[in-house]
Design a protein that fits this description.
The complex is a heterodimer. Chain A is mainly α. Chain A has helices at about 5-20, 25-30, 45-60, 75-90. Chain A starts with 5 loop residues before the first helix and ends with a helix. The chains are: A mainly alpha, B alpha/beta.
Amino acid sequence: MALDDATEVEDTLRAVLADVLGLDPARVATFTEATPLFGALPEFDSLAVAGLLTELEERLGILIEDHEVDADMMESFGALLTFARAKALR
Amino acid sequence: MSGGALSYERFYNGRTNEWLLRLGDPRTPPILFVPPLFEELNRTRALIVAVMRRVAAEGNGCWLPDLRGTGESLLAVEEVTWDDWRHDVSAAAGHIAKESGKRPVMASLRGGALIDDGVEAIGWWRFAPATGAALARDLDRASLTGGAEWAGYPASPGLRDALRASIAADVTPLRTVRLETDAGAADHKVAGPALWRRSEPGTSAELAEALADDLIKWSRTCAAS
């Protein structure tokens, strides 16, 4: 059930961040592409990474390989959004 | 003995005595909760106890066992095998049958569904069951970005392999419940957060209520048939 709309991917990513990290959706709505994530948000630790990736896979209908996972792709909201769109919209 | 009280009981699994948390009257129809595995249990324990409280208030005895190597168990998780956990669940069911005089309904969450089938039960209810492969992948992934190996649960190679190969057994009668954000097949979908994926333990009153309502109905259906 891959999505076909870039906005839908962005909405899904924001919802997953709020759900997995336990953040207020109003706060996640203010994230811009430059907002730093992994290493910057105390909620976003190594343990949360597994939950985030699995939840993205389920909601976007994608499969993320281990070799695609590193700190860079989660460094900022923009980096994670670019990754999610490349996966979901191909 | 007050009916609605919380108490801790001991059950013997053939090797060690482990703890069972009980909520509700032990003479009312029993429900054995089988917890999620590894770190997912910590993240969902408050939810499980909230569900147990609601279900107990509606007239069920609710039990939640410590599996060997988890909770208050004196064993280290390194020493535990997959068969030990399966055996713990059947030993807990045996304890409950003795206390209540009845066979339980099994209520399994996540990886608990992988070890809930070796029991004489009147029915099974599973919330967000996962394959062992998916659970193992999450634990592998937690170490990809510099976290502790297997999220700090140094399971033996044998336990890891058994988990990876494990899928939930076919049991009957079975009711499967999932979150509405989960595309997997289910008899019923409920709204709420995937608390087992949260970085910090949490709970959700709405989710606890939705799960308890469904479990109460299902346990009555099982008891009536």
